[in-house]
Amino acid sequence: MIRIAHLSDIHFGGENVAAVAGAAQVLRGGEFDLTIVSGDLTQFGAVSEFEAAAGWLASLPGPQLVCPGNHDAPYLAWWERFFDPFGRFSRIIGAAEAQTFASAGLAVYGLNTARGVQPRANWSKGQVSRAQSRAALAWLAAAPPEALKVAVVHHPLVEMIGGPMTGRVWGGQAAARALAEGGVDLVLSGHVHAPFVWPYPFAGGAAHAVGAGTLSVRERGVAPSFNLIEADAGEIRVVAQGWTGSRFEPLRSWAVNRRRQNARPG
Fold first, then answer.
1. Which contacts (CB < 8 Å, 24+ apart) does range 77-81 have?
2. Domain of 176: which CATH number?
3. Integer Cα distance of 162 and 130 in angstroms
4. Among 85, 124, 161, 171, which has the minimal tally of Cβ within 10 Å of its Cβ?
5. Which domain holds residue 114?
6. For the whole model, what pTM was predicted?
């Protein structure tokens, strides 16, 4: 059995303090194979926010894989935003461009879909290049055939159906197709602040997009939440844990057959 904790959009500097503490309590007692954070650790990319995030991550047990999001590029330090947008992330948190984790039954590759600047008005939206997809697939191809293969991004590569906001990822459709046809089981993301699970419309619906909610005060119609993921040889189960104000309880659940059929809400 593989157990993964999937969090996103904590937004230190604008975090829900009680929910963040409650999530840490769950993670300390969960014996997870891996804790994943799919971006937006900070609100403005400030050094103090990164330091708070790093301290929180250090308080958690077990291995971690953390990707940057669009909020992790400095908001006000324009020189850094243009010329070294993820320098602070790299110095304080870890590698920004490609993160990997491998164990006997799990292979995870993180891609950075955020950009400091872009040739469009809204820099918060995502981008993914073919080179990034090729690198992810090449690394994942070396994993054992029985391993659960997971890609991590910040922006949903294909828009969440009925979502509260968009990722508008340049290159997202092509990347989703490549990952699905390349044998990836799950593509984990954040950004929209709402949990979801649904199959990509490629490779017969074998690969599933999984979104985590937020642990910040920037709620978009959904309580602060994060995902618990369990996988065995035949099935993957995702449970979104929602904050009640005093504890986390199951908010919504999904179960999907590995590489075989579409998601069905629980």
1. 77/45, 81/45, 81/116, 81/117
2. 3.60.21.10
3. 27
4. 161
5. 2-265
6. 0.95
